[in-house]
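REQUEST ID: PR-0412
SUBMITTED BY: lab tech R.K.
PRIORITY: routine
TASK: structure prediction, single protein chain
INPUT:
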Amino acid sequence: MPSHRVFRVALGLFAATIAFAVLGTLSLFIGPVRDFFLPYYATLVAAPTWTYMALLPVVSLALYRDQLGVRRSLLFLLAASVIGAGAELLGTNTGFPFGEYFYTDRLGAKILGDVPYFIPTSWYALGVLSYDLAGRIGGGRVARALGTALLMIVWDVSLDPAMNQGGGTFVFWEYPGGGPFYGMPWVNWVGWAVTSVAIAAAFEALGGLRPAGTALTRRWAPVVYGLNVLFPISICLLYGLPSAGVIGLVTLGAVLALVRWRTETELAVAR
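STATUS: complete
OUTPUT:
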């Protein structure tokens, strides 16, 4: 099957998983529905969450396969996943560079008992999207690496409140010492920045990625990135963290507007 078809199928399943999770949560506001599904609530939360995490790298792989080819696609996946896993294992065991935290059992089996297997590939999936979009903003390698870090942190603006508080219902990771940003210490974003810059540097070492290199990536990379950020935003809004959701919406709108403006400017200059 051509990669663009694989991408569309994977994206369709991905979007359906998010829709199922959001609509399922909305249905719980209806008393009789909530009472009926309450005994199955843990399964109904785990199933779409695990499906979402499993599909996350598949969507990015399919999106960039034609541009990178099979070999470099797999190298990008491997490099970002190894860096992400290394940073997470270091973080969960030492507190550096994210601050002190630990994963609960909500995401299943863990590498060395510390980091869920789903986590490293999520660093790849959002890392390659952020790297592409950062390249569209412009600047040299350093600017692109910093832009990648910025876009990854924008994802975490709503992701962390949603996942470490979960409206008090489902918590995927915790910060024992707490912190000023919805229970998260500010140093966590330093860890995100350092890890994201390292991933961007690895992509550069592997030959880089031309921003908006194909018609498929030009059109769909911002959509896939936005969909990923909107998911935790919706969780924040539905689980009693409206201010975190609003902050997420504002930062998402700002970076996507910047990417679009810079892309259109570059196209105008090229003409």
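NOTES: The chain has eight helices and four strands.
REVIEWED BY: pending
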